[in-house]
Amino acid sequence: MSASRHVNALNCVGQDDVVSLRIICSQARNYQYNIEELDIYGNTALLKACYMGRLECARILLDFGADIHAINYFGQNALTLATYAGNLQLVLELLRYRTYQDFNLSSLIPAICVATLRQNKALEEYFKRLDPAGSQDLHTVHGLGVNDLKQMVNAKIKMKEPQIFQKIHKN
Predict the structure, then answer these.
(1) Distance of CA 45 to the CA centre of its chain
(2) Membrane-spanning residues where (predicted)?
(3) Which of the ends of the chain has fewer CB neighbours closer than 10 A, N or C?
C-alpha cells in the first residue's frame, strides 16, 4: 500500500490487502485504528468487503469484532451487499453471526429482493429455504414484493429483446 494514502481498514478492503487488514484489525484493539470508520456512503470496512464480495476481508473483520449490525446511508446491511455481490460463501459466513430474519428487519431492501433484482436464482432459492413462509411477505421500503420485482425485471428484459433482435437482423 502506498505511503501517500491514509492506511485504514477501508483502503485495505479496497486493495484486497488481507495482510495489512489483519495488522490494522489487531492494532484496532489498542485504539490505534478504527475498523468502524465510514466512507462517503456510510460503509464500514465490513460493508465495503461485502459489497465487493471479498470473503477473506469480511472474515478477518468479523473475527476482530466488526459491527455486523452496521447499515450504510442507503439502508443496506452486510447481507444485502453480499447478496448484491452474488457471493454465496460470504452470505453463509454472515449468517453465522446474525439470522436471516434479523438482517431483513434492518434493511430497506430485504436480501431476497436484491437476489431477485440481480437475477441470482441460487441466492433467491437459498433465501426461500431459510424462510419459506415469510419470503413472499417481504417487501422493499417502496412496498414492492418479490413477485413485483420479478415482473419489473422481466418487463425490462422484454423491452430490450426487440432492440437486440433488430440489431442482429441489421448486421
Answers:
(1) 12
(2) none
(3) C
The pTM for the full model equals: 0.80
Domain 9-170 sits in CATH at 1.25.40.20
* Apex 31 CA angle, 79 and 50, nearest 5: 15
> Which three cell numbers, joined as nine digits, stand for 155?
418487463
Residues 19, 1: Cα–Cα separation, whole Å: 11
Q: Which three cell numbers stand for residue 99?
A: 439470522
Q: Which three cell numbers stand for residue 143?
A: 412496498
Judge whether residue 92 has pLDDT over 90: yes
pLDDT digits (tens, 9 = 90+) for 37-66: 999 999 999 999 999 999 999 999 999 999
Q: What are the extents of the domains in the chain?
A: 9-170
Nearest to 153 by CA among 114, 124, 116: 116
As a residue count, the chain comes to 171
- Decide if 164 contacts 141 (C-beta within 8 A): no
Helix, strand or coil, per DSSP, at residue 93: helix
